[in-house]
Amino acid sequence: MTAFTLYNYVLSGNCYKIRLMAGILDVKYDTVAVDFYPGFEHRQNHMLALNPAGTLPVMTIGEQVLTDTQAMLAWIALNHDPSGTWYPAADPMLGPLVQQWLAFSGRLTNSAGLAGLHSMLNWPIDGEAARRAAIKDLRELELHLTDRVFEGKTWLVGDHPTIADIACFPYVALSPDAGLDHDGYPAIRNWLYAVRSLPGFVTMPGIHHLHELREGADG
Amino acid sequence: MSLEYAKNDWYAVADIFCLRDGPRRTRLLETDITVTGPAEDATVTDDQGNRYPVQLKFDHVWTTLGDSPRPLFDIPEGDEEGRRRVPCGVVRVNCSPLRAVENFLDIAHFPFVHTDILGSEPHTEVSPYKVAIREESDEVWATQVKFFQPQAAKSAGDGIVTDYDYRVPAPTVAVLYKTCPPKPEAQDVIAIFVQPVSETVSDVWPWMALYDDASTFSEMAQFQHEIFVQDRSILENQRPVKLPLDPKMEIPTRADMTSVAYRRWLKKRGAFYGALRDGA
Amino acid sequence: MTTRPVGLTRDLPAGRVMHAQADGKDMVVWRATDGTIAAWDNRCPHRGMALSHGFVRGNRLACLYHGWHYDRSGRCGLIPAHPDLEPPATIHATQYGVVETGGVIWVSADEAPAPDDSDLAPLRSFIVEASEDALRDAQEATSADGAPPAPEASDRVSVLCNPIEPGRTQVTVLTAPGLPLPRLRTLSRWCEAMRRQAEAKETA
Fold it and tell me: Rounded to a whole number, what is the distance in Å from the CA of B69 to chain C's nearest CA?
C-alpha cells in the first residue's frame, strides 16, 4: 500500500522536493513519469484535466489532487511525521516562519529554477534577468543563514529541519549548474551540506551523493 | 582550432519533435542557423539566406556547413524490427564537444557520478578491454568492456555485469552497445550526437534504440536524462575547457585506453575543433 | 604574490572542501578529518576535473569524477579503477601555501609570510561584484552614515579585500571580539549596505 502517487519529472527541482521529503520520512509512493521534456506532456489535455495550471509535480491521494509543491510537503509532514517537527504548524512563531520560507521557495522556483531551465534546456526566457533575480535571492538566504550561524543554529527555522529547508534546498543546490557559483555563500554551503547529510537523503541529477558518508569510506 | 575540417562533418541540429511548435533558432560551429520543419522536409538556412544540405536520420535532422562533406555514418541496428527509438531532446552543456564525447566513452566514473545506477563502490575496478582504430571504417572501437552495474537500464532489476562496445564514428558522435536485460541475444544502442555550438559550448542530443516493451516512452527518456545530466556538472568543471591532445597535460591510466585512442584519432584526422593542440 | 584571505576557519569544518581564487589561481582548499588544512591547484591531474567538487575521506581528498584519492602531500594514493595498482609518484596535485590566523584562511602561491595575528574576530566572508577601489569608497561612505546599520568605533571593524577578477572582490570583515548577537546581525546588514553601494557605483 502506497501513500500517494507522484506525477514526476526527473529533472524538476519541485518534483525532487517531494521525492526528498518522502525519502527522509521513509514514505512509499508510486510515480508516473511525465514527459515534461522533450514532449511537454504537462501541457496536454490528460495532464491539464488533472492540473489546469499545467505545472509539475502533481500529487494524488486517492481521489484528492494536490497541485502546489509546498502544500504537498505539508501533506507529507502532517500525515507521515510522528515527531511533528517537520511542520510545526500549530507553533505560534515557528509555524508562520515556516510559511515565510515556503513562500521564499516559490520565489526561488522563478529565479534560480528558471535560470536552470534557461541554461540547460534553452528555455525561451530572459536568462540574465532570471540569474540577477537568483543572485538577489541567494544573498537574502545567505544573510539569514549567517544570522543562524551567529546563533549557533543549522536550519532555517527552529532547532530541527522543517519542510521549509526541503522546499528551499533544490534550486539553491542546483544553482551552480545554472551558472551561479556558491563561492560567496559560505553559510549556504554549510546548510546545503547539512541537508545532504540527513538520513534518508536522496539525490537528483546535479546533486550527487556525499561519497564520504557512504560505505567504502576508509576514514 | 580547425573550423574548416569541422565544417565538413554532419551534425544533428533538431529532432523529429522540436520543430512541431515552429522553427528552431540555433548555432552550429559559431554560425547562426534556422531549422524549419516539418522534420521530414526540413530546411536549414543561415542569416544571409544560404541554404545548407539536410538529411533525416536516427530521428534527427542533420546538416553540414562544408563544401565537400564526409558521408554521414550509419547505425544499422537502429532500423531493426522491434526496437523502440527514443530521441531525448537536447541538453546545453558549457563544455568542449570533444570532452562530451570522451566522457561518454568512459566507464570508470560510473560509481562516483552515476552512483547506484551505472556503478557503485566497491565495484570500481575496470578490467582490461580491447581498443582499435578500424582502418576500413576509420572509426574508434572499444570492445569487451565489462562493468558491474546496480541498475544498468530502466528494464534491469538487480545488479548485473554489463557488457559494452563503444564506437566513435565521427569526432562529435559516440555510440554504445550494451547488454539488453530482456533480450540477452541483442544489444541496446545508446548514442549522443553533439552539436558543436562553439569550441566550448555543446548542444547534446541523446538518442536510444532499445528492446523494452515494459517502460513508457517517458520512463525511458527520463532514465537517459537522469544519466546525462549527472554528467553535465562534471563536463562544465573540467579545465582546460578544450580537450588537451598533448599527452603530457593529462595523465591516463589503463582504464582510459578508449580516451587515449580517441585523442590520437582526433590528432591523426586533424579534428582539432574543441581541442587544445600540442604545445598550445 | 601576496597572501590573500579566502574564507573563514568557521566556514570550513573538518572533512570539507571549498573553491578559492587568489592572484589569478584557481584553488581547492580542504580540511582533513584530523583538522589539517591544505590548498592545491584546483585540478585533478587525470582529466582536469575541479577538485573543489571532490570529497574528503579520512585525511585524503578524492576527485568526484573517478574517485582518485590524494593524500595531504598531494600524492595520488588510490585509483579506484585499478585498486591493486600502486599509483606512480608522478601523479600529484600542485600545492600552495595556506595558513590560518585569527579565524581567517590565507593562501599564497609561493612562500609569502603569514599575516600577523590580530585580536579581531571574523564576522563574514562574501563576494562583491565591484573593484576593490569601489568597495573601499563604499566602506567609507556607508561608515560615515552615522545611523544603523553603520559601524561604531567600538566595533573596531576591519575590511580585508581579495581581488579575484576585474570587478569582482572577495571581502572579509573582522570586528572586535565578543560582540553581542544583535550587534553581529546589524553589522552583517552593514556588509550588505556596503555591497549595494559598491555595486551601484560600479554600474553607474
Answer: 32
